[in-house]
Amino acid sequence: MPTDTTSDSQTKCGLVALVGPPNVGKSTLMNRFLGQKIAIVTPKPQTTRNRILGIVNGPDYQIVMLDTPGLHRARSPLNREMVRIALDSLDEVDVILFMIDAAFPPPDPSRSPTRYIAGRNTPAILAVNKIDTVAKDHLLPVLAAYEKLHPFAALVPISALTGDGTDILLQEMLKLLPPGPRLYPDDIPTDASERFIVAEMIREQVFLATREEVPYSTAVLIDAFQEEPERNRSVIHATILVEKKSQKGIIIGKQGKMLAAIGSRARQEIERLLGQKVVLKLWVKVEKDWSRNPRVLRELGVAGR
Ligand SMILES: Nc1nc2c(ncn2[C@@H]2O[C@H](COP(=O)(O)OP(=O)(O)OP(=O)(O)O)[C@@H](O)[C@H]2O)c(=O)[nH]1
Ligand SMILES: [Mg+2]
Fold it and tell me: I need a surface site. Which of 126, 145, 185, 242 has the fewest CB within 10 A?
């Protein structure tokens, strides 16, 4: 046992992978810990497609959090890459933060979402999210079931939306993190580029504005990002890829109204991110089978690292 009392004053620092089924609130939780919106959030599953790194700083700790795509049974090449990204992130972390939705019924052991982390030695914490949506007596059987499914170091009921329980969750993560120096500067929230976050903010508005297969048939590429410091603004040109002509029509909408609404809402988010005025020009392009095209998936940072 360490007897050196100076170790108590050292910083704790490490990597935490935030994983779990789609739509449980992983990105919402990361944004809450960061105190700002870095990862996009929508009510639709499979919103996050990349690994998004968030740097959570405290006076004596730094948690490098990896938000990941939801774990699901993937069929298409894009979805397979998303699940691979989430599973790969497990290999590089000190702690696994596994999240489920409190409203999920206690799972059948053979189909438990925890099967994705079975057999791993990395310490894991279970975050049972969205407790604001369930009655308290629903929670106990859920916790009891998950306790049997995986040797979690802690099980913490939380609401990423209201912040309830997140302080306890933070303390549980810190217990499992090793002492060490900060891995990143303490004044940046992410290593993701502004270009990436801007593309995500446009995709978020496409997800919120469209239905059925349309959001899943879209991706966003930034064509140009010009800063004009003398006018304190940025001019951004982006293309929304779709797979079919009919989807292009849906996104543009009658007299271009849908695209104008997507652009206007995304521009407001981007202006908040960049802290300056933004001129946002959007195009929609049909790129048949882009979600199967390795070149496009690489450009989106989803495949072929
Ligand atoms: N009521 C409630 N809703 C929540 C909570 N946390 C997240 N949500 C909502 O759940 C939905 C999904 O949230 P996300 O953060 O995008 O979930 P995710 O796990 O990142 O989803 P994927 O990226 O698709 O895997 C959004 O509508 C959130 O507002 C919570 O604590 N309570
Ligand atoms: Mg997400």
Answer: 185
215 half-sphere exposure, CB direction, 13 A CA radius: 21
**285 in a structural domain:** yes
Check pocket membership of 42 for ligand 1, CB cut-off 6 A.
yes
Q: Is the CB of 163 under 6 A from ligand 1?
A: no
Ligand 1: which atom is nearest the Cα of residue 160? 31
Mutation to probe ligand 1, out of 19, 31, 40, 41 (largest number of atoms < 8 A from CB): 41
181 lies in some domain: no
Task: Calculate how far, in angstroms, residue 232's C-alpha sits from the geometric centre of ligand 2.
Answer: 31
Ligand (nearest to CA of 69):
1
Which of 124, 143, 176 finishes a domain? 176
CA angle 295, 43, 286 (to 5 degrees): 30
Predicted local confidence at residue 210, as pLDDT: 98
pTM, full prediction: 0.96
Domain assignment present for residue 304? The answer is no
Residue 1 scores a pLDDT above 90: no
Out of 39-48, 100-109, 243-252, least confident range: 100-109
183 found inside a domain: no
Tell me the CATH number at 263.
Answer: 3.30.300.20
Looking at the fold, whether 216 and 84 belong to one and the same domain comes out as no
Rounded distance, CA 157 to CA 75, Å?
32
Cα 162 versus chain centre, distance: 18
Please tell me whether residues 55 and 150 are part of one structural domain. yes
